[in-house]
Amino acid sequence: MTLLEIPAETFREASIPVLETERLILRAPRLEDAKTIAMLANDRRIAENTARIPHPYKLADARDFVATVNLASETVFLVTLANETVIGACGITQDGKANEIGYWLGARHWGKGYATEAVRAVIDHAFTDLDCEALQSAARVTNPASRRVLEKCGFQWTGVGLIRIRALNSSAPIDRFRIDRGLWASLKSWGKMHRVA
Ligand SMILES: CC(C)(COP(=O)(O)OP(=O)(O)OC[C@H]1O[C@@H](n2cnc3c(N)ncnc32)[C@H](O)[C@@H]1OP(=O)(O)O)[C@@H](O)C(=O)NCCC(=O)NCCS
After folding, report:
1. What is the pLDDT of residues 38-47, one digit of tens each?
2. Whose CA is nearest to atom 19 of ligand 1?
3. What is the pLDDT of residues 135-162, one digit of tens each?
4. Quick check: is 197 in a domain?
5. Which atom of ligand 1 lies nearest, measured to the CA of 112?
6. Which among 149, 157, 195 is the best mutation to test ligand 1's pocket, defined by most ligand atoms within 8 Å of the CB?
7. Which terminus of the chain, N or C, has fewer Cβ atoms within 10 Å?
8. Interval between CA 143 and ligand 1 midpoint (Å)
9. At 94, which CATH number?
10. Is 177 helix (H, G, I), strand (E, B) or coil?
11. Residue range of the domain that includes 36
């Protein structure tokens, strides 16, 4: 088999590493995940707190997500439990100027510290393997859980803004957050990332 005969998905999936945390595994999305992704993401609370997720979110949306994710400058993981149950997604979009972290979990998995654990793994990956110098994120001002996740991961508030929310077909106010390599290294060396939890 020549390189040109290897399916594109092989390269896409191969370029996304597997990250392991105490309770979670983060890995590339696969076509067989589409049904579970659609079931978890078809939730207005998720769509209205993320920029690009439509509502309702159908199986075709999930299939399209799996087929096109990680083709451009992004590194998006599915988040699973150790028993391989898919619980959500977390990733970084790199557009040259900024590296933006985004995440969502199915509602049945909220409130167990999973988002914080997944985002910390992606931050470590960004600074250790992707050569990022700084990361940004944002949360709607009406989304204290997401704000708290970012704070627990060492992000600092930098200001306010507006973001276009596809599911609302309008813009909404957000708080913006940032963490740079120096702050991350300090937090890691002081062990504060874990004591804040
Ligand atoms: C935001 C989201 C990812 C959080 O997932 P999670 O696994 O429940 O998060 P964690 O358990 O790691 O942490 C949540 C924190 O928020 C706190 N929290 C939850 N609801 C809260 C509320 N209404 N007010 C204040 N704090 C709240 C929790 O107590 C916890 O903090 P603590 O550990 O100090 O007690 C999840 O709710 C989600 O997917 N929401 C919809 C999509 C979304 O908002 N994505 C983020 C886009 S910016």
Report:
1. 999 999 999 9
2. 145
3. 999 999 999 999 999 999 999 999 999 9
4. no
5. 11
6. 149
7. N
8. 8
9. 3.40.630.30
10. strand
11. 3-190
